[in-house]
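Cross-posted from the bioinformatics board.
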Amino acid sequence: MDIKTAEKTYRDYMRRLRAYSHAMGVMTYDKVTAAPRGAEARVSESLEVLNEASYRIEMSKELSDAVDLLYDRREELDPKTKREIEVYRRGIDYVRSIPEDEYIAYMALTNEASDVWRRAKEENDFASFLPYLQKIFDTNRKFALYYKPDCDPYDTLLDFYERGLTSARCDAFFGRLKEELIPLIARVSAAEPIDDGFMHARFPVETQRKLSDYLMEVMAIDRGRCAIGETEHPFTENFGKNDVRITTHYYEDDLTDSMYSVVHEGGHALYELGSGDEYEGTVIAGGASMAMHETVSRFYENIVGRSEYFCRLIFPRVYELFPDVFSGVTAEQFYRACNVSAPSLIRTAADELTYPLHIIVRYEIERDMIAEKYTAAQIPEVWRRKYKEYLGVDVPDDTRGVLQDSHWSGGSVGYFPTYALGSAYGAQIYSVMSREFDVGEAIMTGSTARINGWLGEHIFRHGAMYDPDTLFKMCTGEEFSPEYYISYLKEKYSRLYALK
Amino acid sequence: MDIKTAEKTYRDYMRRLRAYSHAMGVMTYDKVTAAPRGAEARVSESLEVLNEASYRIEMSKELSDAVDLLYDRREELDPKTKREIEVYRRGIDYVRSIPEDEYIAYMALTNEASDVWRRAKEENDFASFLPYLQKIFDTNRKFALYYKPDCDPYDTLLDFYERGLTSARCDAFFGRLKEELIPLIARVSAAEPIDDGFMHARFPVETQRKLSDYLMEVMAIDRGRCAIGETEHPFTENFGKNDVRITTHYYEDDLTDSMYSVVHEGGHALYELGSGDEYEGTVIAGGASMAMHETVSRFYENIVGRSEYFCRLIFPRVYELFPDVFSGVTAEQFYRACNVSAPSLIRTAADELTYPLHIIVRYEIERDMIAEKYTAAQIPEVWRRKYKEYLGVDVPDDTRGVLQDSHWSGGSVGYFPTYALGSAYGAQIYSVMSREFDVGEAIMTGSTARINGWLGEHIFRHGAMYDPDTLFKMCTGEEFSPEYYISYLKEKYSRLYALK
C-alpha cells in the first residue's frame, strides 16, 4: 500500500465509523430526551448490534494496516493529517491491546452495569451493584496493564482521559486544594449565611424555558447549530460542529439549577461550535481533552456566570420573567443568592467552593481501588469517612453517597479528576485574559461575545491539534499552577461571606 | 443448510437489519423534531453510509439462501414463521430484481430529489424539480417491469403498497366517488355556510400542548409507549410496539389543525401499540398495509373525531382551556365549526368531504404517467385542469399545486390511492361496528376505549398476518363496497348543510 492509498483508506473508514457513532449518539440522545420509556429494550439491542459492527470496522486489518503505515511515515504527512493519525492511533492502540472477547465482554458488562446501577441507586441497594463495581475496577486495571504493561495502571487511565495527567500531578494539585479549601469551607460554614429566602418560590417551567432561550442569546450561541433539550441530568452532545445539543432539567422550586446548567452546558457548546472548520469530521474536531472541556464549561458557569457582572446583566430579564418573586430584590442580592455555599452530599448540586472536595473523594477512591488497597465492598465506608473529614457532612445512605454518579457504572475510571482540573485551569486563564481586557466590563456590554472571541482564538479553534498541556501553555504562556484557583476562591468567598 | 439453521440465520440477520432501520429511523425523526438546522449535511452522510451497509446485509448471499430455503419449505414452518418468510421475501424479491448499481443510484436520486423538491416548493420553481420528477416516474416504471415483466407496471406499484390493489379496482372505486361526490360538493358549496367565526382567534401553543395531552388521554393512548413531538408536517413513526411517536404542528391561529392531527396520528399510534406481542420485532409487527393504517387513522380523525359525540365529549375541556374564545359557544356550534367543508387547494388541509377528490387527481396523474400518456412537464397543466374540473378551484401556482406533497420526490408512486381507500374502508367498518354496539354512546362515556378494543380485536392484534383484503373480510364479514362511504358522506353533509 502506498501512502496515498493508505490515506484514502483511512478517510473512507473514518467516514463509515463516523456514521455509526453518529447513529448511536443520536439514538442515545433521543432515548433520554424524546423517546417514551418503552423504547429502552429496543435501543439496547440496536446499540449492541451497531457497537459490534463499528468495532469490527475499527478492528479491520485493512484499516489497521493503513494507520500503521501512515504512522510510520507520519513525517511525510501534512501537520493536520499527522496529528489525526497520532490521535486516532492512540485510541485504537488501546483497543487493539485488549483481546477481542474480553473487550466485547466488557462492553456487555458496562451496558448491564448501567441498568443495575440505576436500579441500585433508586432502591439504595449498593449490594446489588457491588459485584459489577468490583469487576469494572478489576477490568480497568487489567486493560490498563494490557495497554501499558510497564506503567502504573491508574496513571494509564488518567492519561487516557487527559493526556499527560498522572497521579503524582493529581496528588500535588489536590493536596494543595485540601490544605487551603478545607479550612476555608469551615470558615464559610461558620459565617453569617447569605439570605436567599426569596429564591424559595415557584418558577413555572414554561417561563424557565424562556430564560434558557435568553441565556443562550446572551452567550451568543448559534441556535441554527445548537438545540436545547430536557433530560434527567444535563449534558452536552455533538454530532460535528454544526449539530450541538445541550440539555437541562427544570425544577419548579429551583431557578438556579437549570439556569447554571444552561450556562455550563452552553460553555461546552461554544467550544464545539468554535472548533476549526478544517478539522470538521476528523478526530481533531471538538475539544482538546476532557479537562479543557470542563475548563471552558466551568469558566462560563462559575467565573462568568456566577460573577456579579453576569448576575447584574441578566437580572432585568430574570425580574421581567418572575416579577412576583423578585419584587423588591436588588441585583446584588440576586448575585449573592446565586453564590450561597454550603457543604452538601451531591456533587452535581454542589456550589463552586465545595465542588472540588467532592472530586477529591472520588479521585482518592479510584486511585486506591486501582492500586488494590481495598475492595469495592469497602467503598461506602471510605466514602462516608472522607465526606465527614473533608466536608463535615454525614452521608445518610448510598443513594446520596457512592451510588449518586453514573461514571463508574459506565466504565469511566480516571475521569473525575478532569472536573476539578478544569476549574483550576479556568481560574488561571481568567487571570491571563484579565491582563488583556476588563472581563467584567465585557460582560456588562450585553453578551459574552468578547470572551467567546478570546477563548475561540486561543482554545476553541484548535480542536485537538495540541495535547492539553501544550494548548494550556500556548494559551496562558505559563505552566499550570493551582495558586490562581485558590486565590480566586479565597478572594471571592472572603468577600461574599465577609471573612476577616 | 437445514431448516433450523436457515431459520436461525434469518433471525440473526433480522436482528441486525432491525438495528440499522431503527438507527436510521431515529436519526430521521430526530432531524425533524429536535436537531438544529445545521444537522442536515451530517445526517445525509450518515444515512448514506448506514443505508448502504444495510443494503449489503440485506443482499448477502447467506441471507438470500436461507430465505429461499425457508420459502421452498414453508409448509413445514409454523404459521407465523411461514407468514414472516412470505412477507419478507416479497420485499427482497423486488429489491433483488433490480441491478445493484441502479438500485443504489435510485437511492441517491430520491435523496437528492427531496432537497431539490423542498427548495422548488419554497420558490415555486417547478422547472428545477422537473428532471427529477421525470426520472423518478421513469425509474419506478422500469423497476416495476424488472420485478414483474408481464404485469402492468402501475398495478405492480399499487400492489407494492397495497397487496391486491389494481388500477381496475381503483378506477371502479374512484369512478363511483366522482359520480357522487362532485355534485354533492357543488351542492354543499352553494348552501348556507356554517358559522365558524369564533374559531378565528388566537390559541397559544402552550395551551394547545395541553389539549394534545388531553386528546391522547381520551384516546387511551399509553404514554409510556407513545411520545408526541412537533414537526413541520405531522406523522407517526414507530420503533416497535413499545416506542411509537406521533407529531403535530401548532398554529397559533388555528385550533383544529393540530387537534385533528393528534387524533389522526393517534389512530396510527393505537394500531401500532395494539400489534400482537408475538409478532414484535418481526416483519409482521405493525399494520397490515398502508390502506389499513389510513383506515384506522381516518376512522379516528373523521368518523370518531369529527362526530357530534366526540365534539360534545371534548368540548368542556376545550372550553376550559380557551374560555375567552368559546364563551357563549355551544357544543353543537363547535361540532359544526369542526366540519366546515369547502373546496380548497391543499390536500393535507382539506375537509373530510373534499379530501378524496385531491387523491383522485394524484391517482389519475400517476396512472397516466406510468402509462407514459404524457411527460412530467405536462403535470402542472393537467393538475390545474383536474382541480378546476373536480373541485372548481383555480390553482394559482405550483407551490399550492403539484409541488405541495413530498411523496413523489421521495420515490413513492402508487401510494396516494391508499389514503382514499382507507376512508372508504373505515365507513364500512363503522357500519359493521354499529351493528354490535352504539358507537356514539361508547364515545360519550368518556373515551374511545371500547372502539380501541373492537379494532384491537379485529384489526390491530393481527399485525400483518393477513393480506389487507383478507383482514378486511375477516373484520367486516363482507366484500369491500364504496357505497357505505358514499352514504356516510351524503348523510353527514346533507344534515350539516341542510341539503334537500
